[in-house]
Design a protein that fits this description.
alpha/beta; 8-stranded parallel β-barrel; two-stranded antiparallel sheet; 10 strands; 43% helix; globular
Length: 301
């Protein structure tokens, strides 16, 4: 026998993780319209932008404008990879920061030209300062299951990194299957260990849908006790430094699965699909998620 939670929190990552690797340059106006439509659907936690180098991720060059002009609703994360990014985010009034590091040294080197240990050494004082000032800190753990360069990552390595972040006082751990290679057994196993070993930090699961097992992995994580999930409206996403990674699990498909199982999210599925219809014309690939296809058929009827 098993039990599911009554409620699940969806952290929408489409405006940041979903768009960061998009070939078309999406205007600030269209990004804001997308974010505001997602808010209208009932989403209360969202990654809205990233304070990274415009040279490497030009899609995020309008981060300051996004933070300034977005409607302030719920918890709005901005990705801040280093102290410079944190400073820029604080200057424009961001309140919730997300930092990231890869369990895999090779991925970390490809991403930010630092080993995992070097990244952690640099992040420790940044996180300490943020917590002293009362900011919410979310630590994103990349390549928690597999790495495109090193292959399978051990549970022990992922657990060790998460424990280190937890010892620094982070509020949340977002643990990611960055290239979408995990299976449900691995999802259940890793999150069971994490929840047992780190019970006092918000635990969030982040899956990509490369092999179409994202929904199954979310279900397995639910059974392991996870009640927070990163998802991306329209299934948008993919990491520019992770070859082969496709989009995140689609928010609308996850919400539909949860609702049909009696798990509440506080999100209106029709309004969520409306938000997807706003961003769909702005991106380079067709949005072809199950619930969005159904929404389009219903709109044409």
């Amino acid at each position: 026998m098993f039990s599911l939670p009554n409620n699940v929190t969806i952290i929408e990552v489409g405006p940041r993780d979903g768009l960061q690797n998009e070939k078309n340059l999406v205007s600030t106006e269209n990004k804001l319209a997308f974010i505001h439509a997602l808010q209208a659907s009932g989403i209360q936690e969202m990654e809205i932008t990233s304070f990274v180098s415009p040279k490497w991720v030009p899609q995020m060059s309008d981060a300051a404008d996004i933070v300034e002009f977005v409607q302030k609703q719920g918890r709005q994360f901005v990705l801040t990879p280093n102290s410079k990014g944190v400073e820029r985010a604080i200057e424009v009034g961001a309140k919730s920061m997300a930092v990231f590091v890869g369990v895999s040294n090779s991925f970390n080197m490809k991403n930010i030209n630092k080993t995992t240990a070097q990244s952690m050494a640099g992040l420790k004082p940044v996180i300490s300062n943020l917590k002293q000032q009362g900011y919410f800190v979310r630590a994103c753990i990349s390549t928690a299951f597999y790495c495109p360069y090193e292959g399978k990552i051990s549970i022990e390595d992922t657990l060790s990194l998460c424990k280190e972040f937890a010892s620094w006082g982070v509020d949340e751990l977002s643990v990611a299957d960055t290239i979408g290679m995990a299976n449900p057994h691995e999802s259940y196993s890793l999150f069971s260990h994490l929840i047992k070993e780190i019970p006092n930090v918000l635990m969030t699961a982040h899956f990509h849908d490369t092999r179409k097992m994202g929904i199954a992995n979310i279900y397995a994580a639910l059974l392991a006790g996870v009640s927070r999930f990163d998802t991306s409206a329209g299934g948008l996403g993919g990491c520019p430094f992770a070859p082969g990674a496709t989009g995140n699990v689609a928010t609308e498909d996850v919400v539909n699965m949860l609702h049909t199982m009696g798990v509440q999210t506080g999100i209106n599925l029709d309004l969520l699909c409306e938000a997807v219809s706003i961003i769909a014309p702005c991106v380079s690939r067709p949005i072809d998620t199950g619930m969005f296809r159904l929404y389009e058929i219903q709109q044409q009827a």
